[in-house]
Amino acid sequence: MSNKIIQAIKSSGILGAIASLTVLLFGGWSGTVIGWLMGTAAGFMSGQNQNVYSPRMGARIGSLAGLGLGVWLLVASVVEGVLIRPFSGQSAVALPTTLLYGICSLMIAILTATLMGALQGLQGERQRLATLVTLAFILILFPFIDIQAQTGWIATVVQIQIFIMLALGLNITVGFAGLLDLGYAAFFAIGAYTTALLSSGQLNIAWNFWVVLPIAAGVAAIAGVILGIPTLRLRGDYLAIVTLGFGEIIPVAFRNLTAIRIDEPVSKIVAAVLGKPELVLCLVGCDRPFNLTGGEAGINPIGRPSLPIIGTFSTGNYFPWYYLILLLVVFAYFMISRLRDSRLGRAWNAMREDELAASAMGINLVKTKLSAFAMGATFSGFAGAFYAAYISAIFPSVFDFSVSVIILCMVILGGLGNMTGVILGAIIIMSADRLYLPQLAQVLKGFLNTFVLPRIAIPQLQDFLATSLDPIQMRLFLFGLTLVVMMIVRPEGLIPDKIHQAELHSEGEASNESLADARSQ
């Protein structure tokens, strides 16, 4: 039993560090929200790390994990209110108030961890069903909890879910089929621009969003096939270079499609042969070249979805946007999981392991590769359509190479081929990029303005510190450093696919891990 207690406490260590960092940066009632989320995760992890034979045993182990997490939150709440706020130029919070925040966070962390731990003690399919129901309950209630706690995280969560869908789509190409795609943002752009052109009035048409959504996904799938055709004979680095070029071409094309004139090809050839340009028959843009994509200024406004009871989705009301992208992510997860377990998914895995052996087994490599590109691009098209409607404007600079790199980082960090790991990787990277780094920059700026810069007499040094110590400017450096550390410590990712994990570890390591698992049981 002592070993189980130690493992339960250890399982809350990393979660406690993340939760305490959240409280130190955001303060207030953020501890209760993160205690609710991390407490549930701590209870789940405590049940996964060991054998739980009954709900009572799971509740006991989960309560210990929740207690460890709650202590982190309690200490962080006191430190944030008493020390962090004054040092960042804000007014300090009274000690009773900070204790109230911390105690509430502690109680919620223990309660949720105990409940989730008890659910892990259920047997068979009941345990899986109870876990899924709890997860659905959390996802549905999150916007209401966010409003009550006044954390204001829902807008960031919407963006996180967009990139979760993109990461799930790229996982088909890279994780399932083993085709390295460095231009995945191109499909994101194609889905977004398809939605913009069909629902903004740019082409003098304004179709309904619900009609445009599958069209955007279909156009992106066709683009995936077009990309896949010239890469059928390529592997490894050569495939990556071609997809990189495709990803660079698409934003440039959208940026420059601002003066379009289409001539009838036969008359153009005849006019060129005879040397009489007046014989050319113009089809589009005769009097004035047509501006298709708006150039760098982009296309706006873009039509937004509407429902009978809710009405048209608006900018300030994040509730309908949250539930719409949540439904799209659930749909993507369900469809991709079915594809993974299908005959096509097994063909992708076989092709990833050995193309020659897969071909000898009767797998059509042409169809298999093209289907991987098409399916991955389809879900990117869904994400692009939602993104275009969500921000109601689209610009070519949004879809640069860094987007493809960040999405690939999500897949690698979470674990190639593992859908749950990919979702976790997307949450970690996007939370750090859109939530933690901006808040850290604000706290650091307050600290510099309050305690550091007034004590420095050299103006040049003041300017250097004010402009250089910005975590947002170091975001790509932090992402790169994270990947380097992951490749050294855990190259298979946070939640690896079993096949990738076996490939990246030697037989001796695998046998040692199996022996350790047997001893723990």
What descriptive keywords fit this protein?
single chain, 521 residues, mainly alpha, two-stranded antiparallel ribbon, 21 helices, 4 strands, globular, disordered C terminus
Helix and strand composition category: mainly alpha
Major β-sheet profile: 2 strands, antiparallel
Read across the widest sheet, the strand sequence of neighbours is 1-2
How many separate helices? 21
Give the end-to-end Cα distance, rounded to a whole number of Å.
12 Å
Beta-strand percentage?
A: under 5%
Secondary structure: helix percent: over 70%
Ranges with pLDDT <50 over ≥5 residues?
A: 510-521
Average predicted confidence as pLDDT:
84
What overall geometry do the principal axes of the alpha carbons give?
globular
Count of individual beta strands: 4
**N to C succession of SSEs:** HHHHHHHHHHEHEEEHHHHHHHHHH
| Rg from Cα | 26 Å
Summed up, what is this model?
The chain has 521 residues and is mainly alpha-helical. 72% of the residues lie in helices and 2% in strands.
What does this structure look like?
The chain is an all-alpha fold and 521 residues long. 72% of the residues lie in helices and 2% in strands. The chain has helices spanning 2-11, 13-26, 30-48, 55-87, 95-119, 125-149, 154-176, 185-199, 209-228, 236-256, 265-274, 318-341, 343-353, 355-360, 365-391, 401-414, 419-452, 459-468, 475-489, 498-503, 507-520; strands at residues 262-263, 282-284, 306-307, 311-312. The strands form 2 sheets. Strands 1-2 form a two-stranded antiparallel sheet. A two-stranded antiparallel sheet has the order 3-4. The two termini are 12 Å apart.
